[in-house]
Structure formats: structure tokens, C-alpha cells
Design a protein that fits this description.
With about 250 residues, the protein is α/β, with parallel strands linked by helices. The chain is globular. The chain folds into two domains: about 5-100, no CATH class; about 110-254, no CATH class. The longest helix is centred in the first third of the chain and has 23 residues, at about 5-25. Strand 5 (about 185-190), helix 7 (about 195-205) and strand 6 form a beta-alpha-beta unit. The protein has helices at about 5-25, 40-50, 60-70, 80-85, 90-100, 175-180, 195-205, 240-245, 250-254, and strands at about 110-120, 135-140, 145-155, 160-165, 185-190, 205-210.
Length: about 250
């Protein structure tokens, strides 16, 4: 998305959001930024969001080497990097509501997955002090990590339908019922989401959870009984169409 288009969308959203929530969250003139701040809240939000669309890996390099040098004409009242870091937490609530307003539409086909957000190297877990009270020790397919988990649900076009951040030790299946509320159709996930209880809960709400089969899972007949090896039904547990759609999980994994 072009920077000018991004700013226009954020600025229009912020004006509407300010009229709705200013009296509830920010009774002092409807803004939580200091009065002497040069940058408008919508400008701070634009810079913070545009960073994730750039190729820079750190916000410091992005701000000092790109924004201050190449975007000074777009933001004539730029502040220092340290001041920018102080202003960004002030627009966090507005950014969360903006993210919610930009969610994609449910198409009847969704994909769910989670990824680790480590806050330190695994070798420094024992002496790490960053997010000491909120971060937790967890384990993913890549090994142990200390930090958080990002849970995402997207549609077949890659648009975000729901997201949630939890401590690193939270099971992937725990936030799924809350995140999937309001979704219908089929949802595809990995083996970490296998749960009979969650499957029945989602299915009763019109959402079918489809996951790959574990090697030790028993096949079941049409009557629901475990079939013997010489009496396995011809109908497979997972239809071929669902198996093919399971391969599209790479969309969310990438």
C-alpha cells in the first residue's frame, strides 16, 4: 500500500475512532499524546505500521536511515528516535482497533496457526529479564523459547480474520474457540489443534476443524466403532478434497 494512501486511511479511521472512544478512554481533549508533541497520533500510527511493510529488520534502522532521510518531506515535524519510541505506546489502543477494522471477510475457508515470538536467545533464557513478569517459557517445533505466541486465523486470500497474543506456555488449542467465534465453514490447522472437545464445540457453531492425522490415531467406521484391520471401511476418515486443502496451510505458515 502506498504511504499516502495508508496515512489517509489511518487518519480517517482515527478521527472516527476519536469521536467514539475519546470520552471513555481519553477525557482530556480526546487524545493521550502530550500537548507539546509535534507529531499527530495518525502520523505516529502511520510510521509504526509502515515499518512492517518495509524491508528493514529493526525499527531503529528504519526510522534513522529511511524516515529521517527519505520521508522528511512527508513528515515535516519529525521527532528524534528516542522521542518516537516514547510516543509509539500511546497509540497502541488505536492501532489495535485499526487492526480490528482491517480484518478480512470470512469466505468459508480459513487456516489457523501459531508462531513463537521470542524475546531472547535460548542460551540466555535463565538470565533474561525482559518481560520477566509476562513472558513464559514454551516449546515449539523449532525448540525451546522464552516469550510469547502469536495466534492467527486467515482466509484463503491471506487476510487476517482473528489474532491473539498469549504467553509462550499457552497451548495452541486454548484460545481457538474464542478466536473462531463468528466463523463458519471449514478451518484447517496442524496436528497441534487435534482435540475432540474443541472439534465438537466448533462443529456445533457451524465450523468444521480439519487437521492431519497422527500416526497412532485409530480409524473409525461409519458407525463410530473402531474397525478391525481386515474390516476397515472403504470411506477414508479425511476426504480427498480436505487433504488437498490441507496443503494450503503453507499460506499461513509463510
Amino acid at each position: 500500500m502506498d504511504l499516502t494512501e495508508l496515512f489517509c486511511q489511518i487518519d480517517d479511521f482515527y478521527q472516527d475512532w476519536l469521536q467514539t472512544f475519546s470520552s471513555t478512554f481519553f477525557p482530556a481533549q480526546g487524545t493521550n499524546l502530550p500537548k507539546h508533541c509535534q507529531l499527530a497520533p495518525s502520523e505516529v500510527m502511520t510510521i509504526a505500521i509502515h515499518f512492517h511493510q518495509s524491508s528493514y529488520r529493526t525499527f531503529k534502522d528504519y526510522y534513522t536511515k529511511y524516515v529521517c532521510l527519505s520521508l522528511s518531506s512527508h513528515f515535516p515535524r519529525l521527532v528524534s528516535y528516542n522521542r518516537m519510541v516514547e510516543l509509539m505506546p500511546n497509540v497502541l489502543i488505536a492501532c489495535l482497533y485499526y487492526l480490528k477494522s482491517r480484518r478480512g471477510k470470512s469466505t468459508g475457508m480459513s487456516f489457523v496457526d501459531s508462531t513463537a515470538i521470542p524475546v531472547c536467545h535460548p542460551k540466555r533464557i535463565s538470565r533474561n529479564k525482559v518481560f520477566k513478569e509476562t513472558g513464559k517459557l514454551g516449546k515449539s517445533s523449532m525448540g525451546w523459547f522464552y516469550g510469547f505466541k502469536l495466534h492467527l486465523i486467515i482466509n484463503d486470500s491471506g487476510e487476517i480474520l482473528s489474532c491473539q497474543i498469549t504467553p509462550g506456555n499457552v497451548d495452541d488449542r486454548k484460545p481457538l474457540p474464542f478466536m473462531a467465534s463468528g466463523l463458519r465453514g471449514k478451518m484447517f490447522g496442524d496436528k497441534g489443534y487435534i482435540s475432540k472437545e474443541i472439534f465438537n464445540q466448533l462443529f456445533s457453531n457451524g465450523l468444521q476443524l480439519i487437521t492431519p492425522l497422527k500416526s497412532n490415531m485409530k480409524k473409525r467406521s461409519l458407525a463410530g466403532r473402531v474397525s478391525r484391520p481386515w474390516q476397515r471401511p472403504k470411506l477414508k476418515l479425511v476426504p480427498m478434497t480436505d487433504k488437498l486443502l490441507l496443503r494450503k496451510r503453507s499460506l499461513i505458515e509463510s
